[in-house]
Amino acid sequence: AVSRVPLIAGNWKMNLDHLQAIAFVQKLAWSLADAKHDFAAVEVAVFPPFTDLRSVQTLVAADKLPLAYGGQDLSAQDSGAYTGEIPGGFLKQLDCGYVIIGHSERRTMHAETDEVVAAKVQAALRHDLVPIICVGETAEDLEEHGPSAVPVAQLKAALAGVSSAADIVVAYEPVWAIGSGQAATPEQAEQVAAALRATLAETLGEDVAAKTRILYGGSVKAANIAGFMREPNVDGALVGGASLDIDEFSSIARFQ
Ligand code: PEP
């Protein structure tokens, strides 16, 4: 809200190959330009699969597109015998600005613990990538512990070893709202975002808490984005399904 530049981030997950990515990013840039999108006022970023990143880099550089992009994950290691892993250095070489860390799909399907998430945050920061640290509770967590306990604990764990000079983004993504069509209410998102900001203040200081962007994610669409963006502690959105539709994602970037 106040002095923070909102960020609208599209997590493509395992969709759009490198040829589709080129067409998509080009059309997205046209759509936003057509709508006279002010990129200085609202940052827009896409998170394609790893194999698309070289193509996206080439297009963004050639056409000087004002879009940011990054990886959906990275390795906690920098190089070596880690079959199938991608290190932060390789993402940085492709001019990635951001990397998503600890998405609930990684936590549940790839058994990523809070310790792994913390190590990946360190890896991102070593390579000058801004980590988008995802936290969020399941429906069972919500029932058992209330709305903020699990996301706050996950954030504290992810920040182990992070200095107050670090540039980070936090994404609050209730697991029950991801891909379910059942978004949190703006009030629910605000309540947890405020708790996460208080956690940032406690662990990294008031200045970091004031400047760090906290995104909401979970069934965000053009039809509900405006409500989230009116909340003082919500500074943008991490968008899954709706980021694969150019007109929809372009509308979300304009909060309409
Ligand atoms: C996500 O996976 O980060 C997400 C928010 O997905 P969706 O928007 O599809 O709920």
TrEMBL record:
Pathway the protein takes part in: Carbohydrate degradation; glycolysis; D-glyceraldehyde 3-phosphate from glycerone phosphate: step 1/1; Carbohydrate biosynthesis; gluconeogenesis
Keywords: Cytoplasm, Gluconeogenesis, Glycolysis, Isomerase
CDD domains: TIM
Pfam families recorded: TIM
Catalytic site positions: H103, E173
GO molecular function: triose-phosphate isomerase activity
Catalytic activity: D-glyceraldehyde 3-phosphate = dihydroxyacetone phosphate
EC number of the protein: 5.3.1.1
One of the GO biological process terms: gluconeogenesis
Binding residues annotated for substrate, in chain numbering: N11, W12, K13, G179, S219, G240, G241
Enzyme class: isomerase
GO CC terms of this entry: cytosol
Location, primary (coarse class): cytoplasm
Localisation: Cytoplasm
Function statement: Involved in the gluconeogenesis. Catalyzes stereospecifically the conversion of dihydroxyacetone phosphate (DHAP) to D-glyceraldehyde-3-phosphate (G3P).
Family: Belongs to the triosephosphate isomerase family.
Subunit: Homodimer.
Protein name, UniProt field: Triosephosphate isomerase
Species the sequence originates in: Agromyces rhizosphaerae
